[in-house]
């Protein structure tokens, strides 16, 4: 009898317990199924945490404040002095190109000089090719021996030296990384720029992305201290491929939340990307023929261009832009709410051509006078035009008059009330009239070879 009661009591205890647990289990199952459905509904490229981290948002603002960066294309291709596409353009076989690293010995490379040059030009960050489309790693990579330490007589890692020097001199360092690879057999199926260079007709795309590329990115984000971010290039070679972006972008943000992802894919920004960059064009323009006209109103913007006509060292390229042209580019970029990333291609011995150096010094002197109207600003309230652009800071609008010969300049209306107008640099008052129809400024006469006449409008908050 007592045994029966015991059994009965134990059954009723278990039943009571089950009655409590079952609704909990049903609730949990429901939650799991909702999570699975939501995940399945997300586009393949969505960033897992679509919300950028606070560090990342801060880094974006800092990026916008910097306004001027140095782009560096440097690789074993510089030995041939014919640009970074020489492998492709001469339709070389890989066993021919693979001899090139043997001649790459940049004994004159001095990280300190490079960083000092960028600083003297007024540049606040450097973006350097960690590898270009030839896939050759300009850093100490354990993922493959196709790298500077193992294949060149130099045997050292210049990116490490550069990173250390950038940290010392307070310059942000970004790594350009080519997703397109003309060397690795696993970059397969090959893309639009492929030619028969001796690679096998098979390869494993997933291995290329998940092991090779992500492996190298992990190295770049772990071995060089805090970096500014990764500047991707080359996705346009296989526009329809699955690039596993979600995975790669998450990896980057997980390793360094403040590292910015800057993709040069020439398309509208995708989830997880932090900056929209435009190649050889101002945001929204497409004179180069491959940029999108869409301009993000959320992400920081950047426009890249070259100081001569080439990216990598090109011995026959003498089309150097004048300092005045660069200054105008810089002002126009800022007025379009964008940074300017200006490229130089150092020589294979590690030196930077005098033509670059002298121009950069001149631009730097100009920036030391005009920097206040550019650094830390955002695009101003008046749409840019051929005449010039505006930049702004709280309570200040800088009117940059670039191409205007007449004494009066009529501009569209602005919301804020102008309290005063002054010539930038000498504080002389500038006559102005503000009505509902717009603003008329009496433009100071241009000094000899003066690129930019800046009028500072003090405005009510
Ligand atoms: O093919 C490259 C080129 O060599 C260079 O690196 C530029 C820089 O923006 N981007 C690519 C073309 O879109």
Could you characterize what this model shows?
With 461 residues, this protein is α/β, with parallel strands linked by helices. It has 11 helices and 16 strands. It has helices at 2-41, 54-66, 86-89, 94-97, 111-120, 148-151, 158-169, 205-222, 245-255, 323-335, 354-370; strands at residues 68-72, 125-131, 172-178, 229-233, 260-264, 276-279, 301-306, 338-344, 378-379, 388-393, 396-401, 408-411, 418-423, 432-435, 438-442, 453-459. It has an 8-stranded parallel β-sheet, with helices on both faces. The chain is globular and about 70 Å long. The structure holds ligand FHN. Ligand FHN binds next to loops.
Proportion of residues in β-strands: 15-25%
Largest sheet: 8 strands, parallel
Low-confidence stretches: 1-19, 21-48
User: From the helix content, strand content and strand pairing, which structural class follows?
Assistant: alpha/beta
Tally the beta strands.
16
Specify the number of helices: 11
Averaged pLDDT, please? 91
* Residue share in helix: 25-40%
Ligand species: ligand FHN
What's the alpha carbon Rg, rounded to whole Å?
A: 28 Å
Cα distance spanning the termini: 89 Å
Strand neighbour order, sheet with most strands: 5-4-3-2-1-8-7-6
Order of helices and strands: HHEHHHEHHEHEHEEEHEHEEEEEEEE
């Amino acid at each position: 009898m007592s045994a029966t009661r015991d059994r009965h009591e134990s059954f009723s205890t278990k039943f009571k317990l089950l009655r409590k647990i079952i609704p909990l289990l049903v609730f949990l199952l429901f939650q799991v199924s909702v999570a699975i459905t939501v995940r399945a509904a997300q586009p393949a490229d969505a960033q897992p945490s679509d919300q950028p981290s606070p560090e990342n948002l801060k880094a974006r603002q800092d990026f916008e404040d910097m306004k001027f960066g140095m782009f560096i294309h440097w690789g074993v291709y510089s030995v041939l002095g014919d640009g970074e596409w020489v492998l492709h353009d001469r339709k070389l076989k890989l066993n021919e190109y693979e001899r090139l690293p043997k001649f790459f010995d940049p004994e004159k490379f001095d990280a300190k000089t490079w960083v000092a040059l960028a600083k003297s030009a007024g540049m606040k960050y450097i973006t350097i090719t960690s590898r270009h489309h030839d896939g050759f790693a300009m850093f100490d990579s354990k993922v493959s021996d196709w790298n500077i330490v193992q294949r060149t007589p130099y045997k050292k890692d210049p990116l490490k030296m550069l990173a250390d020097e950038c940290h010392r001199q307070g310059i942000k360092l970004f790594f350009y990384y080519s997703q397109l690879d003309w060397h690795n057999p696993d970059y397969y199926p090959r893309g639009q720029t492929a030619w028969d260079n001796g690679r096998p007709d098979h390869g494993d795309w997933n291995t290329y992305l998940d092991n090779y590329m992500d492996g190298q990115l992990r190295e770049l984000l772990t071995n060089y201290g805090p970096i500014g971010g990764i500047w991707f290039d080359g996705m346009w070679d296989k526009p329809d491929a699955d690039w596993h972006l979600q995975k790669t972008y998450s990896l980057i943000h997980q390793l360094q939340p403040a590292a910015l992802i800057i993709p040069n894919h020439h398309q509208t920004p995708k989830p997880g990307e932090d900056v929209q960059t435009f190649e050889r064009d101002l945001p929204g323009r497409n004179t180069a023929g491959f940029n999108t006209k869409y301009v993000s109103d959320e992400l920081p913007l950047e426009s890249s261009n070259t100081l001569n006509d080439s990216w990598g060292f090109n011995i026959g390229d003498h089309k150097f832009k004048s300092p005045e042209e660069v200054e105008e580019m810089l002002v126009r970029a800022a007025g379009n709410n964008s940074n300017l990333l200006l490229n130089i291609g150092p020589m294979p011995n590690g030196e930077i051509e005098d033509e670059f150096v002298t121009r950069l010094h001149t631009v730097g002197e100009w920036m030391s006078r005009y920097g206040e109207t550019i650094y830390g600003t955002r695009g101003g309230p008046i749409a840019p035009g051929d005449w010039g652009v505006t930049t702004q800071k709280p309570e200040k609008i800088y009117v940059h008059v670039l191409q205007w010969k007449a004494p009066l300049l009529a501009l569209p209306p602005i919301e804020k009330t102008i309290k005063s107008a002054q010539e930038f640099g000498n504080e002389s008052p500038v006559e102005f009239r503000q009505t509902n129809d717009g603003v008329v400024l009496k433009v100071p006469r241009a000094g000899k070879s003066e690129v930019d006449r800046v009028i500072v409008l003090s405005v009510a908050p």
